[in-house]
Amino acid sequence: MNKTRVVVTGMGAITPLGNNVEQFWDGLVAGRSGIRKVEAFDATSFQCKVGGEVVDFNPADWMDPKDAKRNDRYTQLAMAASRMAMADANLDVKNLADPVRFGCIIGSGIGGLDTIEKQTFRLFDGGPRKVSPFMIPMLIGNMASGVVAIEFGAMGPNYGVVSACATGSHAIGDCLRILRAGEADVMLVGGSEASITQLGYAGFCNMKAMGTSFNDEPTRSSRPFDAKRDGFIMGEGAGVLVLETLEHAQSRGANILCEVVGHAATCDAYHITSPDPSGRGLQACMRNCLKDAGLAETDVDYINAHGTSTPYNDKTESAAIKAVFGEHSHSLKISSTKSMTGHLLGAAGGIEAIACIQSIRTGKIAPTINYENPDPECDLSYVPNKAIEAPVKVAISNNLGFGGHNATIAFKGFEA
């Protein structure tokens, strides 16, 4: 059966490396870390004291100041990235024939954690009447999709995906299926996260998930696949794409950036936080994605790895790649851009999709920085420390989430 072709026509990003796609990509290619000492709160008493914060961000630049105050930071970031993506796609909603054919799915792994924290303080300090009447809509994880849809009049498929760190990738996969099924012509899609808060850090630190060895050298703290990695570093931001059916994009003369050709989702069914050491779930996910895309293993040039800088994830993902790609795994170029952005949790899939698309468009592959001490269990080509130039026709992105969720997306250079 011939599948409806789906293309990317716009991108928007707010990241620790910069507040647009160009700054983000330039930072990745330069091998620059966006990780610094946490400034959002006093992290002195926390085990991890560094993070990938978004700086110089004013939500009033992207939405009405009154509306900005009534929305959590994660929704503010999503709105900014969405506006950029729409502008990049040169998409005027007034020219869309039917708003019901225009949808929006922007996920968040945690939602309004900052709102939960602040409103809890209000409750215990001043009693129930001090809690904001906007608290519930501010914190729920579907609100980014709702607020963005209201702004652009997108009346099509709309909901929030929540699958921890696989959220952004699952959202893109859902939109791919919606467009293929003929349920929409255009979808705004991605992920947004703003969990650099006291509560977020306390929870992740106490479960021993975050890196603590390089608090005095923040830029060296996220080190995927390196033998001295000891945990992930949290980041925040948003990554949003405009996806369209090829027919719709061509009918309006859109600039096509690349094609989304495959997606798959599986579950380890193993543990709430640890990946299955066998890697069976991720192996099945990558294989199913290639099957969905009609690709052979040798067609893939680049993998943007989940690569969280945790001891278990990186070796499990490396083993899964070797199991799926065999001898070709040693020819593949693999990198974890989380080495520079930190882990954006539910937004990771959005910004890492952009990294894949940019690799296809520019013939450049972002590095894995801080790769200094080879790990015998991580013995693939991780593009260490410096970007390289290499033709990329097909790139895939992996993201995994607590609960055993796996997501893989495949992107391909567009050919008419």
From TrEMBL:
Keywords: Acyltransferase, Cell inner membrane, Cell membrane, Fatty acid biosynthesis, Fatty acid metabolism, Lipid biosynthesis, Lipid metabolism, Membrane, Nodulation, Transferase, Transmembrane, Transmembrane helix. It holds the Pfam family Ketoacyl-synt_C. InterPro entries: 3-oxoacyl-ACP_synth-2, Beta-ketoacyl_synthase, Ketoacyl_synth_AS, Ketoacyl_synth_C, Ketoacyl_synth_N, PKS_Beta-ketoAc_synthase_dom, Thiolase-like. Residues 3-413 form the Ketosynthase family 3 (KS3) domain. GO terms for molecular function: 3-oxoacyl-[acyl-carrier-protein] synthase activity. The keyword Lipid biosynthesis applies. Pathway: Lipid metabolism; fatty acid biosynthesis. It is found in: Cell inner membrane. It catalyses: a fatty acyl-[ACP] + malonyl-[ACP] + H(+) = a 3-oxoacyl-[ACP] + holo-[ACP] + CO2; (9Z)-hexadecenoyl-[ACP] + malonyl-[ACP] + H(+) = 3-oxo-(11Z)-octadecenoyl-[ACP] + holo-[ACP] + CO2. Its EC number is 2.3.1.179. SUPFAM superfamilies: Thiolase-like (SSF53901). One of its GO terms (biological process) is fatty acid biosynthetic process. The active site is at C165. PROSITE patterns: KS3_1 (PS00606), KS3_2 (PS52004). GO terms for cellular component: plasma membrane. Proposed to synthesize NOD factor fatty acyl chain. Involved in the synthesis of a highly unsaturated fatty acid moiety, which forms part of a lipo-oligosaccharide that is responsible for host specificity. Belongs to the thiolase-like superfamily. Beta-ketoacyl-ACP synthases family. This is 3-oxoacyl-[acyl-carrier-protein] synthase 2. It comes from Oceanipulchritudo coccoides.
